[in-house]
């Protein structure tokens, strides 16, 4: 009986001595995306590992805060945790945009290497803002969709190309296309009215937004693999006891591994589905590849210049054999 009492005391010291903690976790992405499903599984894993003492409620689709408000909300402690796309904060600091430098990392192995090269500097920057990174997961590579075949760089000239951040605006300009700012939720209407004729987005967006209903041509150029980050306010994390902190970090490590694997698997499946839905899937021509690679070199150099020594160190580490 005494032994049982000691065991119960130990268990209570781990979880029972603390009141149930509840975290709200907003994300700008819909409940049906693999990213949101992965975060939901993370929340379930934390609940299970802590015996229900830490409950995380996910708020998908910008239902709690709009996508562009989420990072600020967790920084200021309005919510304890959140998920957002890192490159969305690149106007705040270009270091956040490393994974969206066009044509720098164009497959999952390269993306992982770039992520690891940038992680110390990015984690330090986020920590200075009161945020702790739990895990990050890439979207499938941003590929080229077009209403008409694109075989030479001249096919872009004068077309209306969707832009949604400074990088995509610059790409359009360098291709001598006209950038048109359109968010993903507005893309269907823009295509229906011929406001946009070509654009870069992921295979996942093509399937989930049914872009195959309006767009005929798909070229898997994988311009970049942007990452979503799930973070926690450092004060909220430090308010947890040690066992809870360890449970959160274990669930986060599992979520990162699961998310990367899911993203790569789904990319292949999504591209097959786009083809099955009637899209023409074609490798970009050598001329297109060279033009895009040249754009990538110029934009990488611009990014390094904007960041300074840290930027050069990251790219050098990434490119080291």
TrEMBL record:
Q: Which InterPro entries match?
A: DctP_fam, TRAP_DctP_sf
> What are the TM regions of this chain, as residue ranges?
none
Which keywords does the record carry?
Signal
Q: Does the keyword section mention Transferase?
A: no
Annotated CDD domains: PBP2_TRAP_BpDctp6_7 (cd13602)
Q: Which Pfam families match?
A: DctP
Q: Where is the signal peptide?
A: 1-19
Gene3D superfamilies found in the cross-reference section = Bacterial extracellular solute-binding protein, family 7
Origin: domain of life: Bacteria
Question: One biological process GO term for this chain?
Answer: transmembrane transport
- PANTHER family according to UniProt: PTHR33376, SIALIC ACID-BINDING PERIPLASMIC PROTEIN SIAP
Name this protein carries in UniProt = C4-dicarboxylate ABC transporter substrate-binding protein
In which organism is this protein found? Simplicispira hankyongi
């Amino acid at each position: 009986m005494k032994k049982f009492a000691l065991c119960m005391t130990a268990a209570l010291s781990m979880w029972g001595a603390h009141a149930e903690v509840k975290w709200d976790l907003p994300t700008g992405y819909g409940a049906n995306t693999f990213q949101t499903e992965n975060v939901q599984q993370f929340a379930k894993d934390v609940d299970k590992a802590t015996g229900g003492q830490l409950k995380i409620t996910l708020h998908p689709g910008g239902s709690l805060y709009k996508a562009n408000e989420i990072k600020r909300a967790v920084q200021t402690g309005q919510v304890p945790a959140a998920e957002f796309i890192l490159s969305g904060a690149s106007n705040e600091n270009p270091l956040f945009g490393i994974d969206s430098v066009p044509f720098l990392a164009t497959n999952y192995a390269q993306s992982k290497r770039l992520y690891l090269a940038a992680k110390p500097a990015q984690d330090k920057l986020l920590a200075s803002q009161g945020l702790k990174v739990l895990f990050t997961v890439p979207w499938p590579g941003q590929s080229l969709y077009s209403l008409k075949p694109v075989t030479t760089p001249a096919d872009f000239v004068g077309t209306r190309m969707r832009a949604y951040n400074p990088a995509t605006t610059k790409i359009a300009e360098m291709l001598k296309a006209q950038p048109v700012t359109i968010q993903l939720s507005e893309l269907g209407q823009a295509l229906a009215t011929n406001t946009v004729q070509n654009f870069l987005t992921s295979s996942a967006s093509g399937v989930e937004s049914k872009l195959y209903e309006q767009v005929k041509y798909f070229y898997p150029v994988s311009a970049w693999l942007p990452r979503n980050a799930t973070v926690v306010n450092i004060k909220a994390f430090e308010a947890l006891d040690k066992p809870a902190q360890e449970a959160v970090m274990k669930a986060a490590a599992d979520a990162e591994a699961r998310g990367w694997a899911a993203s790569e698997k789904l990319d292949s499946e999504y591209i097959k589905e786009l083809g099955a839905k009637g899209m023409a899937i074609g490798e970009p021509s050598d001329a297109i590849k060279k033009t895009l690679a040249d754009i990538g070199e110029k934009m990488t150099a611009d990014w390094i210049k904007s960041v300074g020594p840290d930027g050069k160190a990251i790219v050098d580490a990434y490119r080291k054999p």
